[in-house]
Design goal:
The protein is an alpha+beta fold and about 500 residues long. The protein contains 14 helices and 25 strands. The protein binds one RNA strand of 77 nucleotides through α1, β13, β16 and α10.
RNA sequence: CGGGGCGUAGCGCAGUCUGGUAGCGCAUCUGCUUUGGGAGCAGAGGGCCGGAGGUUCGAAUCCUCUCGCCCCGACCA
């Protein structure tokens, strides 16, 4: 699947088979495999994030975490296991998550007499734990003790970790039983504080996605139906994939006083009266890696946005015979040091492989800039430079100093180009329609992508059937239309 | 959990209908020639045919049961 195959003569050879057009889901998996981002594990539904994929996630954390701290958020670590009784506290919340919880019921194993191990019947827990599907309840419990006075507010907490939701159908990055994320949990004096928090964080997400991950999307409010279980209001950033489906890249929730009431988060207000705090929670997950793939990737594989790419520049030595090896490698080495000292993430691929294979490897991994250094370049003090997003047509030879000086611009150009492609994708896959009939005929005619319709259609009893028929859901009511429209789409 | 597909060498697959010595391509290893977008020739190694039971002289192939993966739904970040 990750190997080149003889495509039909008409199509140019691609590094990835199947192509996006042939089979989008198959293409998606092939990209992950070819880029060596992640793989399935022996644990059903749980992935192994491989070093290259994890490096990407680490870069996301490194970028985003300081923003949170700057805003006033403090990092914490709460237990992986949550007492079942905690989860049971908030009615909506239970209903939302109970059916996808992994439960820990024992604390000891014993031999089953057949060479295996089973939970010991003598070691059953009095109260089972659930592996956290999200941490509102256990953090809420702590908040109820930590918050006494309005002086303790706002309390802004976050943790980087993983959670588990027992999903029926899993797909690498997009939906796995265990997934990695950050989860912010904050408490405020009033609704104004909580709402402002949700919107501030949502803006932060948008900035992160646009300025670092180079993708566009719709910021807005979720419909009542699509709200987080236990939230008064859910905000989201919805992005559009190359197959026209929507993907929720991040959400923020105004939990109102729902969790404050169920967890007992009360404080004495400025008038000395006991008052419930207003809490929020917000998150983005390793799912955004799936979004990166489906937004930027092409038939040659991954395309990493330069500002988040684990490796921004891959230097490929092109050796003809042994006599040149050391001078070429020295040249690469000095170039690497030069670029590293300027803060770029650079690698020289000096593996003992054919150079053309190394080039394809860099292509499939989506490394933004590829540099080829052979005898010619060494002699002339030049480098040959190729942009991943534009392919071999963009191959250019530059003097070394010129390359080093312009690299920031090259990376910015790649970023800008990816972002504007993503905006174009979003626009091309959004139809502005007025009536249910329009929606029906659009999808009936095999229309691909999302439709934006007046919010009043949510009231229309005919909408359900259409949503059902075409597997649509209400994604978000975009801010750009001031809540007057709602985006309907198939979604990941 | 429903409907469909699939588990055979590291990867991708054929062989299964019609039971009879385990195959192909790529990758790997060796040698020589090559090297600027997936090199050529010659040779070599590699398998409990997902697992467990059956039927049979004989099972990758037939039967039963299981486990896992993929796609489309339902559920969802």
């Amino acid at each position: 699947m990750n190997q080149p195959q003889k495509n039909t003569p008409k199509k140019p050879m691609t590094a990835i088979t199947p192509t996006r057009e042939d089979d989008f889901a198959g293409w998606y998996q092939a990209v992950i495999k070819s880029a060596d981002l992640a793989e399935n594990s022996p644990v059903r539904g749980s992935m192994i994030v491989k070093p290259y994929g994890w490096a990407l996630w680490e870069n996301m954390q490194k970028t985003f975490d300081p923003w949170l701290k700057d805003y006033g958020v403090q990092n914490t670590a709460f237990p992986l296991l949550i007492p079942v009784s905690f989860l049971a506290k908030e009615a909506q919340h239970v209903e939302g998550f109970a059916k996808e919880c992994a439960v820990v019921t024992h604390h000891r194993l014993e031999a089953d007499g057949k060479g295996g191990l089973i939970p010991s019947s003598k070691a059953e827990l009095e109260e089972p734990f659930v592996v956290r599907p999200t941490s509102e309840t256990i953090i809420g419990d702590a908040m109820s003790r930590w918050i006494q006075s309005y002086r303790d507010l706002p309390l802004q907490l976050n943790q980087w970790g993983s959670v588990m939701r027992w999903e029926m159908r899993t797909r690498l990055f997009l939906r796995t039983s265990e997934f990695f994320w950050h989860e912010g949990h904050c408490a405020f004096e009033d609704d104004a504080g909580a709402t402002k928090d949700c919107l501030t964080i949502l803006d932060m997400y948008e900035k992160f996605f646009r300025d670092y991950l180079a993708f566009d999307g719709y910021k807005g409010v979720k419909t009542a139906e699509e709200r987080f279980p236990g939230a008064d209001q859910t905000y989201a950033f919805e992005s559009i994939m190359q197959d026209g489906k929507a993907l929720q890249a991040a959400t923020t929730h105004n939990l109102g006083t729902n969790f404050a009431k169920s967890c007992g988060i009360k404080y004495q207000n400025r008038d000395g009266k006991e008052t419930f705090a207003h809490t929020t929670s917000w998150a983005f997950s390793t799912r955004t890696i799936g979004a990166l793939i489906m937004i930027h990737g092409d038939d040659d594989g991954m395309i990493m946005p330069p500002r988040i790419a684990p490796t921004q520049v891959m230097i490929i030595p092109v050796m003809k015979d042994d006599t040149q090896t050391s001078t070429i490698l020295d040249f690469c080495d000095s170039l690497t040091r030069q670029l590293k000292s300027k803060g770029f993430s650079v690698k020289t691929d000096n593996r003992d492989m054919r150079s053309s294979d190394k080039m394809w490897d860099a292509v499939k991994k989506g490394i933004p800039v590829r540099i080829e250094v052979g005898a010619r370049e060494v002699e002339q003090g030049q480098v040959t430079c190729v942009r991943r997003d534009l392919g071999k047509e963009s191959k250019k030879t530059l003097a070394v100093h010129e390359f080093v000086e312009t690299l920031p611009q090259i990376l910015d150009q790649i970023h800008d180009s990816l972002l504007s492609k993503s905006t174009a994708l979003k626009t091309a896959y959004t139809q502005n329609l007025k009536t249910l009939e329009d929606v029906k005929s659009f999808y009936h005619a095999e229309g691909k992508g999302c439709v934006k319709v007046p919010v009043s259609l949510l009231q229309d009893t005919g909408l359900e059937a259409i949503k059902e028929t075409y597997s649509l859901t209400a994604r978000v009511m975009p801010f750009e239309d001031e809540g007057q429209t709602v985006l309907l789409a198939k979604a990941y």
